[in-house]
């Protein structure tokens, strides 16, 4: 059991303003404290060693140019308590994506000291709740889980604040960088090695934050961890022939998992098949589709045959789609003859639609399974174990749309940050069965982020036999956290200088 040792609130209560910026729901009139903190103590055994920690759940404002709080962000901060000198203690800032998603997923599903109740493959179990996470990275780093505006308990406070202040690629990066600067100052962590970790759209966010913190706040990171990364504004953009071509290795992984490949492929291990599919994708498939209608009929037929062989989809369907299979069609078609669909976020999951006909599935069976587990678990944990009291709804997904997607490539921002900062390392973590942000597109973005090849020694890729949230599979929870430990250790300088 955790013991509450301190409860402090700054009496700054502001009511929600009913406007397009807030959600017109039962919680629209609930109050939010611009600043609050509830601190408790806990301990967890990690890799056989007892780790004692202090955890603070609270809110910290986003200030406007007049020094007034425009919004307040909810956060949960874990600090190991048996460390006397924090100058060498790593500090990780963790975000999820969406945009519009709370930090709950990696908080109680990946790196935090508590882990939600699920089975070994990530499926929900009842009763809902949390248990100790013996694989947490809290043994090697302190962690701050941050909910951006309108996610979790974070809300807009000032009636004059506008949507453009928060909901867009550049606005999101600007206000979060200022918030991190403030947090680091308040908690005296300027000398600590610092890391940014983001998942899905959160990778777009942290890639931009690395550059923003460096250029505008003179805060230099040691590492950036990209979990299931998006394109981050670098090619391939969504829904182009190139993006669909690069998904072929993911299609092959999914078909292999569901025993939908030809017997000679099926009997081989996944790790034997994927390099072969990747080579075909880069060396033949891309160039063939680039030729469009000028591709000779015989070559078109051969490419379609190979794509069908690796994807598990009938050759005629490949031809009908001009050689590039849309993901929506793939999720519906692969197991159509079995009366099932496959998931988008994790294609190991199977779903059942109202009818087998059609071009797309009725729902993502992976996401519905995860929502089962996380929503109840995070509300229980924050309110009952950590003692954070509020009438606000915890927004797993919050109202942040429309989202302004204009702006520079944050992948290029990250490249520039690496160019300016020789201490900065980057690691990509992807699941082979992730159909939303597929692993081979992540590799492609990583390769093209550094076309010169001059920072390859500071780039690392790790793949896992699971989906978008690879950490929900118990075996991958172990290895993915261990990879973060290794990454942090390898990026620490131990007093050494860095130069080109």
What can you see in these coordinates?
The protein has helices at 104-111, 169-186, 201-216, 241-245, 248-257, 263-266, 270-290, 297-311, 315-320, 327-333, 365-385, 410-420, 439-449, 474-491, and strands at 3-9, 13-15, 31-33, 36-46, 49-63, 69-80, 91-95, 114-116, 130-132, 142-147, 155-156, 194-199, 223-227, 341-342, 350-351, 425-431, 459-464. The protein is an alpha/beta fold and 500 residues long. It has 2 domains: 3-235 and 371-491, 3-Layer(aba) Sandwich (Rossmann fold); 241-366, no CATH class.
Point out poorly predicted stretches: 1-29
Mean of all residue-level pLDDT scores: 90
Helix content: 25-40%
Query: Would you report the number of β strands?
Result: 17
| CATH H level, superfamily name of the largest domain | Alpha/Beta hydrolase fold, catalytic domain
**Rounded to an integer, what's the Rg over CA atoms?**
23 Å
Strand content: 15-25%
CATH class descriptor of the largest domain: Alpha Beta
Total number of distinct structural domains:
2
Number of alpha- plus pi-helical segments: 14
**What is the CATH topology of the largest domain?**
Rossmann fold
Overall 3D geometry? globular
Structural class call reads alpha/beta
In short:
With 500 residues, the protein is an alpha/beta fold. It has helices at residues 104-111, 169-186, 201-216, 241-245, 248-257, 263-266, 270-290, 297-311, 315-320, 327-333, 365-385, 410-420, 439-449, 474-491, and strands spanning 3-9, 13-15, 31-33, 36-46, 49-63, 69-80, 91-95, 114-116, 130-132, 142-147, 155-156, 194-199, 223-227, 341-342, 350-351, 425-431, 459-464.
């Amino acid at each position: 059991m955790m013991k509450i040792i301190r409860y402090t609130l700054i009496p700054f209560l502001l009511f929600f303003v009913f406007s397009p910026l807030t959600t017109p729901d039962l919680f629209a009139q609930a109050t939010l404290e611009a600043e609050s903190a509830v601190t408790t103590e806990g301990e967890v055994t990690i890799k056989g060693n007892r780790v004692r920690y202090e955890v603070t759940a609270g809110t910290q404002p986003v200030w406007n140019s007049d020094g007034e709080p425009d919004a307040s962000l909810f956060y949960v901060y874990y600090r190991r308590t048996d460390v006397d000198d924090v100058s060498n203690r790593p500090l990780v800032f963790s975000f999820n994506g969406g945009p519009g998603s709370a930090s709950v997923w990696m908080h109680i599903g990946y790196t935090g000291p508590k882990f939600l109740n699920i089975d070994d493959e990530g499926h929900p179990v009842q009763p809902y709740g949390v248990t100790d996470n013996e694989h947490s990275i809290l043994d090697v780093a302190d962690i701050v889980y941050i909910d951006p505006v309108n996610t979790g308990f974070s809300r807009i406070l000032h009636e004059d604040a506008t949507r453009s202040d928060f909901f867009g690629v550049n606005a999101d990066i600007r206000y979060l960088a200022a918030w991190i600067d403030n947090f680091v100052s308040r908690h005296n962590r300027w000398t600590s090695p610092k890391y940014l970790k983001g998942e899905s759209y959160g990778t777009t966010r942290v890639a931009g934050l690395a550059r923003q913190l460096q250029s505008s706040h003179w805060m230099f990171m040691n590492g950036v961890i990209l979990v299931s990364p998006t394109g981050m504004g670098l090619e391939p953009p969504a829904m182009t022939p190139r993006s669909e071509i690069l998904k072929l290795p993911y299609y092959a992984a999914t078909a292999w998992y569901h025993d939908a490949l030809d017997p000679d492929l099926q009997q081989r291990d996944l790790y034997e098949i994927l390099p072969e599919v990747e080579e075909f994708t880069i060396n033949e498939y891309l160039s063939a589709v680039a030729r469009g209608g000028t591709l000779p009929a015989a070559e078109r037929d051969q490419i379609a045959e190979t794509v069908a062989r690796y994807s598990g989809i009938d050759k005629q369907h490949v031809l009908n789609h001009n050689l590039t299979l849309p993901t929506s069609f793939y999720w519906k078609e692969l197991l159509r003859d079995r009366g099932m669909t496959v998931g988008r976020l994790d294609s190991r999951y199977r779903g059942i639609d109202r009818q087998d006909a059609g071009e797309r599935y009725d729902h993502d069976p992976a996401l519905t399974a995860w929502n089962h587990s996380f929503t109840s678990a995070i509300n229980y944990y924050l309110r009952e174990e950590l003692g954070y009291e509020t009438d606000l709804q915890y927004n797993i997904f919050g109202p942040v749309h429309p989202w302004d997607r204009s702006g520079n490539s944050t992948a290029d921002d990250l490249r520039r940050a690496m160019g300016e900062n020789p201490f900065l390392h980057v690691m990509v973590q992807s699941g082979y069965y992730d159909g939303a942000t597929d692993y081979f597109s992540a590799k492609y973005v990583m390769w093209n982020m550094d076309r010169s090849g001059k920072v390859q020694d500071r780039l690392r890729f790790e793949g896992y036999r699971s989906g978008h949230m690879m950490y929900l599979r118990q075996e991958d929870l172990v290895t993915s956290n261990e990879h973060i430990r290794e990454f942090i250790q390898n990026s620490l300088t131990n007093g050494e200088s860095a130069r080109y």
